[in-house]
Design a protein that fits this description.
The protein has three domains: 150 residues, Rossmann fold; 131 residues, no CATH class; 191 residues, no CATH class. Helix content is 53%, strand content 10%. The protein contains 17 helices and eleven strands. The protein has a five-stranded mixed sheet, with helices on both faces. A two-stranded parallel ribbon has the order 1-2. The protein is α/β, with parallel strands linked by helices. Its main location: membrane. InterPro entries: Bact_transf (IPR003362), EPS_sugar_tfrase (IPR017475), Undecaprenyl-P_gluc_Ptfrase (IPR017473).
Length: 494
């Protein structure tokens, strides 16, 4: 008999997805959300520099003086621009919400700029540079800049609104999960403006149970749907919109999402957003708390990706002769394709097609895959040499360039083995918290090739998880160097 609460949760989740159709414009988005703030700050900086030269030159011209000292004017403008950008950033002027609702910030722009003007006048007095920066030139500079800053903000606001209306601004892709009341108070524009999020799915949690000991089946069903949606849609985060007063419920939600490699963030609820809405001086009035961190930060992901791409290109340049020789040898040795494609689970258990040189007379990719054993009759003559030297894995460099794999990471297993060992080991799924690798920490520690016993797989998983929890670029480099030694020894490769 079907679980009615589970069906209710699923139907609520499906219905809620219909309300975020606008977020499906994601394929049209082009520019990162953060660029709006950088663009606005860059315009302000240029406006102040130009105004410093133009304003002081205008004053000199109208005073009958020779227009000169452009370098000094530009230097003073640079100092003023740095001071203003620091104060404007601290006041939240470059947050998306402030940019698109510029009327509310006009008066604050003038106030901050007048403070900068007073500081500039004081600095000119203390440095005794009145011969170059007279009171009249400073007043002209301050007045002209104030006018141009307002005009520039108006123009930037119009431009950003056009970009948003055309669907060309991209936030961080996120699946939103929360209570009905909290979700109702959040729309897609607010998520993009205040938190830099592009909503790709929205799921509503059912009302919590009276018991605080565990989540209901309906709640767990919605959370599982959220993790599935994040995997299928390529989300970068799972975001919660739940009242902060439900601390125990938040702890249970965080625990239930440990299997997902994505960071889980908690948005400020309606009460907290109301309290922070009128802050006059804050580094970041709108924020989200990361209650579960991903294994790698965004910067670490970027560093590892750059390392992978550069490393894969270098290896392809160095190893193209053996790759070509292997392809020719396979073609002449036995009938069948040169390359073998097999489905594997990648990052966040998302399936991809792994590439290998064909080394067997069969190409299994079904519900039952038998691991290769020593003296396996399925292995071809050429295949035996390729497997011993791990040359059969070299086509996976193209998987690395495509983004499905890394140079270093947990080795991807056959799908049937993922299911088999996932049912036996509670922490097996955590291997998918990073991209699979051509080589890994387990492989350079003696766990390369066939695993005959569950204990061997358990030890391999432990080594994989140690790698994930202790990742660094130096560790990746160390593993690559040790892989060369391991391949030369040809242990456990057949």
């Amino acid at each position: 008999m079907p679980n009615s609460s589970g069906e209710l949760a699923s139907s609520e989740a499906i219905l809620s997805r219909d309300s975020v159709g606008s977020a499906r414009k994601e394929s049209r988005l082009r520019f990162p959300h953060a660029m709006a703030g950088y663009f606005c700050a860059g315009v302000d900086f240029l406006v102040i520099i130009v105004s410093s030269i133009l304003g002081c030159s205008i004053y000199q011209a109208f005073s009958g003086l020779v227009v000169s000292n452009f370098d000094a004017f530009a230097l003073s403008g640079s100092v003023a621009a740095i001071l203003y950008l620091w104060m404007a950033h601290a006041a939240g002027f470059y947050q998306f919400g402030s940019i698109v609702s510029s009327h509310a910030v006009y008066r604050k722009i003038i106030n901050r700029w007048l403070v900068v003007g007073l500081l500039l006048a004081l600095l000119a007095f203390l440095l005794k540079v009145g011969a170059i920066f007279s009171r009249g030139s400073i007043v002209t500079f301050v007045a002209l800049t104030a006018t141009l800053l307002l005009v520039a903000r108006w123009a930037v606001t119009r431009a950003i609104k056009v970009v948003v209306s055309e669907g060309l601004l991209a936030g961080r892709r996120a699946v939103l999960v929360g209570s009905r009341d909290e979700l109702a108070a959040l729309d897609g524009e607010q998520l993009l403006g205040d938190f830099g999020l592009s909503e790709i799915d929205r799921l509503t949690l059912p009302s919590p149970s009276l018991s605080t000991m565990q989540l209901t089946r309906s709640e767990l069903s919605v959370l599982n749907l959220a993790m599935d949606s994040a995997r299928q849609e390529g989300a970068e985060a799972i975001v919660l919109a739940v009242s902060w007063s439900e601390s125990r419920r938040l702890e249970l939600i965080r625990e239930s999402m440990r299997a997902s490699p994505l960071p889980v963030q908690l948005l400020p609820d309606r009460i907290v957003r109301g309290l922070t809405r009128n802050l006059t001086f804050a580094w970041q009035p709108n924020f989200a708390i990361e209650i579960k961190r991903g294994p790698l930060s965004r910067v670490e992901h970027l560093l590892k990706r750059v390392f992978d791409v550069v490393g894969a290109l270098v290896l392809l340049l160095l190893l193209w002769p053996p790759i070509l020789i292997a392809a020719i040898a396979i073609k002449f040795d036995s009938a069948g394709p040169v390359l073998f494609r097999q489905r594997r689970n990648g990052f966040n258990a998302k399936q991809f097609r792994i590439l290998k040189f064909r080394t067997m007379t069969v190409t299994e990719d079904a519900d039952k895959v038998v691991q290769a054993t020593r003296f396996d009759r399925r292995v071809t003559r050429v295949g035996r040499h390729l497997r011993r030297l791990s040359v059969d894995e070299l086509p996976q460099l193209f998987n690395v360039l495509k983004g499905d794999m890394s140079l270093v990471g947990p080795r991807p297993h056959a799908l049937v083995h993922d299911i088999q060992y996932g049912e036996i080991m509670s922490d097996y799924a955590f291997r998918h918290h990073v991209k699979p690798g051509i080589t890994g920490w387990a492989q350079v520690n003696g766990f390369r090739g066939e695993t005959r016993q569950v204990e061997q797989m358990q030890r391999r998983v432990e080594l994989d998880l140690w790698y994930i929890n202790n990742w660094s670029l130096l560790l990746d480099l160390k593993i690559l160097l040790r892989t060369c030694i391991e391949v030369a020894s040809a242990r456990n490769a057949y």
